[in-house]
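Ticket reopened. Same input as before:
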Amino acid sequence: MDSITWIGLASVISAGITIGIGSVGPALGEGRALAQALASIAQQPDEAATITRTLFVGMAMVESTAIYCFVISLILIFANPFWNFAVSQAGG
Amino acid sequence: MQLSPDETIYWQQGFVVINATLVFTWVAMVLLIGGSWLITRHLSVREPISTRQSVLETIVSMISGQIEEVMQRQPGPFMPFIGSLFLFIAVMNSLGVIPGYQSPTGSLSTTAALAAAVFFAVPYYGIRERGAAQYLRQYLQPTFFMLPFNIIGELSRTLALAVRLFGNIMSGEMIVAILLLIVPLFFPVVMQVFGLLIGLIQAYIFAVLAAVYISSAITSEGD
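Engineering reply: fixed in the latest deploy. New output:
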């Protein structure tokens, strides 16, 4: 296979693996955080506003890693510099 | 399929480029500034207070309350910056449901600029409240060897702010675009509603994180 095929193959496979593996960790972490928040709200219903706000901020921070993986996947599929270079080489 | 509004170029000459990001940012700015100016022209303290003034007062007091809860101090000096961040990002994200409008926050340029604003605001507020020596001493906590890690931490959380907002908004728009190709009847609308909610939540999170970073730069040991 020539290099452009290799580049396309590697990009697609790694895009899939990136988002597949990258979303497991944050999902588990957010589930744990949510469970803890629900338990705290059940224990102290008066503090529900503070707990909910802290929960949302914490979830946003935990989600960051998943978003990094997602952005890498999208770049590999839609804005891949190696692919663009190989296509320009093949066309020129 | 375009990745961000940067790719829609309306006019270009030399290195001056008018792309969709710029145009739609200005639309949001004109909406916010024009609307606020129109409503605050005739502010009144006594009855009757117009409905629009009450709406603005409600928004301002809600933001002020949230900042006070997060920072545990008077929100006065921080209201302009953090309130503007929240309102600007919320308006830019929410206008995305209007057909033809592309959220400028779906472009890494906008979110990077907002994160850079926070990056410079943190030492500004820190030095204003604590003095330069006291603020810079924070980077040597708890030991002198932590200086590079503190600096890297500062840079990485700024980067995280930019990428978080960009990733959430861009992915929402891209999901709608892809669904329009596959199941165009009902699901794109559902995803756009979800995108509205995510836009507001991300605006809130951006503002609250900015408040948390500023308050951590201001608070010294023993406060």
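Helices of chain B lie at 20-39, 51-71, 79-94, 108-130, 132-137, 147-182, 187-218. Chain B has a mean pLDDT of 89. Please confirm and we'll close it.
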